Amino acid sequence: MSDATGSLPRWPDVFASALVGTARTGERAEVLLDAAAAHAARRRAGRALVTGVRPPGPAELDGVPEVGAEAAARVDTLLALDSASQEALPVRDMASRLELLTAWLDRAAAAGRRLPAELVPALLDFGRRHPELRHLIAEVAGPLAGWLAAQRADWSYEAPAGPTESTVDDAEAWELGSIQRRAAHLTALRRRDPVAARTLLEAGWEAEPPEDRPVLLRALSEGLSLADEPVLEKALDDRRRQVRDVAVDLLAGLPGSAYGQRMAQRALACVDLSGSGPITVQPPSDCDRSMRRDGIVARPPAGTGERAWWLEEVLARTPLEVWPEPEVFAARGVTEGWIGTLRRGLARAAAAQHHRGWTAALVDQVTAAVLTAGRPADRELLGALHEVLTDEELTARAVALLRQGFGGANAVGVDQVLALCPAPWEPGLADAFLGMLEEHLAHHGADWRVIALCELAGLRLPADRAARAAALVERLRAARPNDPGLRAIARFAETLRFRRDMLEELA
Amino acid sequence: MSGSAVTDVPARWSADQVLSLAPDVSAQRAARALAGDQAWCEIGLSVEEDLPPTLWGLCQGSGTRPYQTCVDLTEPAYICSCPSRKFPCKHTLAMLLRWASGAVPEAPAPSWVREWQASRAERTSRAVARTEARRSGGAGTGRAVSEKATVRRAERVAAGLAELDRWLADQLRTGVAGLARQGYGHWDAMGARLVDAQAPGAARLVRNLAEYAGDPERLLVELGLLRLLVAGFARLDSLPSELAAIVRLRVGIPVSAEEVLAGPPVGDRWQVLGVHDEPENDLLVRRVWLRGAQSGRAALVLSFVGPGQVFVTDLVVGTELPADLCFYPERLRVLIARRHAPAAPITTVAGAQGVRGAMREYAAALAADPWLERWPMVLAEVVPAHLGSGRWCLASPEGEGVPLDPAVGAPWRLVAVAAGRPVTVAGEFTATGLRPLSVWTDDRLVPL
User: Fold this and answer.
1) What pTM was computed for the model?
2) Which end of chain A is more exposed for a tag (fewer CB within 10 A), N or C?
3) 3-state secondary structure chain B
4) Is the predicted ipTM greater than 0.85, yes or no?
């Protein structure tokens, strides 16, 4: 090897010769190799530093204390997407995981604690895909979230300055944007200035492509008033069915509209409220042009008579204010054979108009109808009615359904009701659920419907019921060690234990 | 271990730490399922004066009698009376998980636990005696036979390296610019001949060249380093003994664990500053980087597992282990000779330096071992900074930065922890830049 001090050729020369090869330069390969060897270690050791680096300014400190180590480890598992962490969680699907994560963030925010800094990037990634988490991110990540977001565009949804609409609220979006951006612009404008938005829509209406019209018309649902009626009435004559459907939807929910009056006239012509005896019913004899214009579907579903169907359609779109109070209505009774049609029509109206009184009056009857006949349309209707009930009504209803045992409760969609009940469930509801489950599993195996209910209950029961759930699993394991549903039921108990520990760690 | 009374109750492990001991994923799953209340008839943690801290339990398995499970937390060492061939078995792991979750009360050890500990103490002292005997130079007859084999092997290696030398010259003759077009086969063929010549270390270096084929300058440096290795091996006898040992090791002449353990033990509180797993051929390689809290000396614990297996290690980032280490001849890789006490959390990071000091230390390490591939850096007072187009560095307050390895990507976890303020970062430095492995914040070390 050559000596490093004297005759060693410079690196650029060594490199240049090596590139083309000594066969061409005429040097001896061994000599060049030695020169490369002498340079090699030196070049590696003498690696230059980057100079003149200007790091970003520091993030603001918020002084909020971090959560404890156990809580940090738990949220780390909830945020991690690798398979080992998925194994460590008691839940399997993303929706359940998000529910647990939301509960963690909620509790940490309430306790005034901060997420460890190293987990903030993972949380910001979650927020990118799940906007419903965003309001909690600023709370548990503090100023660090905004500081990081400023360095990465796809996290900058977090930037607290200004409403997010400002990005779509510009004239250019309206002129040149995609249909989604144009609709967003119109909605934003409507929120600020309903008249201006309507004028803008009307000005270009004739030139709008037919497929865009329903999307744009839907924007009027924001701040809907009687002043919008002319536009909507005009839309009822549109050639495209989708446009007419949107107009019908909006008009039926607009109190005092001419549309409502037309429907009321039709309804009152069929349902005779005069006198004081049972209400007499005379269904429409045909479905004329004006009825079809107002959105009445002429063709009945299979198994329903034409005239009964038309009546149901009319009732479903009639403002409920035209009828006497539900109790008065019920007290009078109805002529034989029309009870079902009347009930369905009124229930559809109650769901569409979000009418508390009528919903409360009808939900029991619709439940009974589902139990006896079990038509899919009725089941759907019941679900729509449940969404109108208040939290207290839902909880009371769920308790009542669960008292009937699993079979009866399941038949009338107790899962829908439970999914709508506010979490965590009230103590009374929790006891009713666990009572039902214990009773059922004492005599039956755990089929998929029970498992589906348990998956929900694991996330919604108060976490302090974890011990009772664990005991239930033990009894099931002892009584039916080979039950194929055992694992899923055990997961239910595990979910509760997970939540109990989680809440304790954040207390 | 054997005689000394350990009265400290060891710090509880985390569930992660426990699960990292599992031999495979199914054992992890089984352990989690067993960690509930129902399976355990009796469970306790013995913290008596005359026993090392021991976790014990009776677990109802499929048999009629419950299994006896026992863990000495200092080593850790395990035993379980179940017939499983997995080690540690699911009962052991489940018991540790329960302990990790705080569900194990302190309780005096029953007689079967004491018997196990007594028999272990005896075995340990015998092993210590054997090691001592070897260190004082008592070579057995088996040694003489292997010496003849050693000579034969040295001849084959020398022949292989001579061929490598000719091959290296050939590469320069045809020019490194043309090597970019060569496929993996070009490098693999020479590598395979070196494997046949029993020089697996040199073979690995040659095969690694394939990675740099697109970067002629880097390639030339690597070819030069190989030439240096060949030249060093040719005059092995005239090299200082330490350098000679390094050359032998880099060429791939094996050093047995016994030989390493026969070397002088280096005692310190060894801080675990970073862990990185990387696939190599069909194996997964784990590098655990240590620094002595008192000496500031760097050390590397290497381990390997096959596909589907899980590393068995209790070296957890952010803890320090009072232990004796024995160094391989290149003075970086180590074997743990003896643990003095259970690992405990780090209170301050050892060996942290400014960027210039750290680069000087790296240069010194390269001067001693030019073939060094990775060096553990501990940088004090640095801020992560984006240099544009995906390149990052760790910058000193003066604006001088150590570049990050582009393969690392954007180090967001590190950026978030630092939040724009100077922090201490540990990582491994290679020719392509630094890979950050941990960062010190709020009195704890966060793995990256």
Assistant:
1) 0.74
2) C
3) CCCCCCCCCCCCCCHHHHHCCCCCHHHHHHHHHHCCCCCEEEEEEECCCCCCCEEEEEECCCCCCCEEEEEECCCCEEEECCCCCCCCCHHHHHHHHHHHCCCCCECCCCHHHHHHHHHHHHHHHHHHHHHHHHHCCCCCCHHHHHHHHHHHHHHHHHHHHHHHHHHHHHHHHHCHHHHHHCCHHHHHHHHHHHHHCCCHHHHHHHHHHHHHCCCHHHHHHHHHHHHHHHHHHHCHHHCCHHHHHHHHHHHCCCCCHHHHHHCCCEEEEEEEEEEEEEEECCEEEEEEEEEECCCCCEEEEEEEECCCCCCCCCCCCCEEEEEEEEECCCCCEEEEEEECCCCEECCCCCCCECHHHHHHHHHHHHHHCCCCCCEEEEEEEEEEEEEECCEEEEECCCCCEEEECHHHCCCHHHHHHHCCCCEEEEEEEECCEEEEEEEEECCEEEEC
4) no
